[in-house]
Write a structure and sequence with these properties.
Largest sheet: none
CATH architecture of the largest domain: 3-Layer(aba) Sandwich
Shape: globular
Strand content: under 5%
CATH topology of the largest domain: D-Maltodextrin-Binding Protein, domain 2
Radius of gyration: 18 Å
CATH superfamily of the largest domain: Periplasmic binding protein-like II
Distance between the termini: 17 Å
Length: 156
Amino acid sequence: MEMLKSVNKVFITHIAYRGTAPAVQDMLGGHVDTMFMPIHVALPLVRAGRLVVLGLGGASRHPLLPDVPTLAEAGAGDVNVAMWYGFFGPKGMAPDLVERLHREINQLLASPEAARAFSTQGMDAAPVSLAEYQRLVRVDSERWANLIQAQRITAD
């Protein structure tokens, strides 16, 4: 939401929640007007007619919601807040172990079973090289750090 606010130079009241579940409950109960949520959380509620998707926060439309525009297509600016998940280990982990774990995780992600399990939740199993993964972490960390600084966000 902070990215949407920053890109569009608008004020939207931030309501802090202790997780997605209570936020979704308040959304369904009419206590909040809008929120960003993971597609795997939204899909069942959209299919049940309990939520309306206003736009997708990714770079492209999603195959499970092909008629829903991205926020950029909807005129809300370049607000790409696509989620990703990754594996991390302790600092100083042996490089050969990092490479072995990365290779084995990619093998799992490349399997038809993983593709099926991820797609049913609206996600993609996306094996990438170790260098691509490290770049993603670095670029996303910088992007969010810049937003936090620009919006003067502090931990409460």
